[in-house]
Design brief:
The chain has 256 residues and is α+β, with helices and mostly antiparallel strands. It has two domains: 106 residues, Roll (Ubiquitin-like (UB roll)); 135 residues, Fumarate Reductase Iron-sulfur Protein, Chain B, domain 2, CATH 1.10.1060. Helices cover 30% and strands 13% of the residues. The strands form two sheets. Strands 2-1-5-3-4 form a five-stranded mixed beta sheet. A two-stranded antiparallel sheet has the order 6-7. Helix 3 packs antiparallel against helix 5 and helix 5 packs antiparallel against helix 6. The longest helix has 21 residues.
Length: 256
């Protein structure tokens, strides 16, 4: 059951790691309860009072945070077996003891700090940007219709937090799959009037090793996405585009 306001302490079990080559270990903490605490508040208390549950002084927990309003994505971690944002996760909503771990899909730098560089490498592979250099010379581009603009706005909410990769069963050390977050990113850039000029290049890049064929449509990503991004429809839209592009390439015709 979730914690209640009459509990005076919070029990946390945190998985720690001294450096990328060290073995992980668990350390327990008991801290005073305050109403409306989030996980970041608990970690900040431990940083200011680095004493574990046994009463021994310890090295302060290392983690990353920035915006504290679910925008930057860098405080992603696994909390009670669910990948999520520590800033938006309230202590009152969690069952105790609260178990906190780094997202193991990514290399661990130290404690709860991870390296998400692979996500940005994936975005580079599929050219997930709008090539605006020089386009101002040819005048203003066409306007998006309202339906497409609303769809693009929902896709643009992705802040590369990485929780969808942690939840996806196809993202592991035996697979090169880039992850479900790439589908809405490709769809978003292809929907842009200027970005559409490179849509075939993006689809082609996403059809290569580690691309869309690695998705088994398990839907885990949809369940954990903190922004409710329409990943399912993006998977369908990108797969449809890829199929049509394959037909055009095979038959050498635009009639498909």
């Amino acid at each position: 059951m979730p914690t209640t306001t009459d509990e005076k302490t919070i029990h946390l079990i945190i998985e720690r790691q001294k450096d990328p080559d060290s073995d992980p270990y668990k350390e327990e903490f008991s801290i005073p309860y305050r109403p409306n605490m989030n996980v970041i508040s608990a970690l900040m208390y431990i940083r200011e009072n680095p004493v574990n549950k046994a009463g021994d002084e310890t090295i302060p927990i290392q983690w990353e945070m920035s915006c504290l309003e679910e925008v930057c994505g860098i405080c992603s971690m696994v909390i009670n077996d669910v990948p999520q944002q520590a800033c938006a996760t309230l202590i009152d909503d969690l069952e105790q003891p609260i178990r906190i771990q780094p997202m193991r899909t990514f290399p661990v730098v130290r404690d709860l700090i991870i390296d998400r560089e692979s996500m940005f490498d994936s975005l580079k592979q599929v050219k997930a940007w709008i090539p605006i250099d020089g386009t101002y010379d040819i005048g203003p581009g066409p306007r998006m219709n309202e339906k497409k603009r609303l769809m693009a706005y929902e896709l643009s909410k992705c802040f590369t937090c990485g929780v969808c990769l942690e939840a996806c069963p196809n993202v592991n050390d035996k697979s090169e799959f880039m992850g479900p977050f790439v589908f809405p990113q490709v769809r978003l850039k292809n929907a842009h009037p200027t970005g559409d000029m490179n849509s075939e290049d993006r689809i082609e890049a996403f059809m290569e090793d580690g691309g869309l064929q690695g998705c088994s449509n398990s839907q885990n990503c949809v369940q954990v996405c903190p922004k409710g991004i329409p990943i399912t429809t993006s998977i369908g839209a990108v797969n449809r585009k890829a199929t049509l592009q394959s037909f055009r390439s095979f038959f050498g015709s635009d009639r498909y």
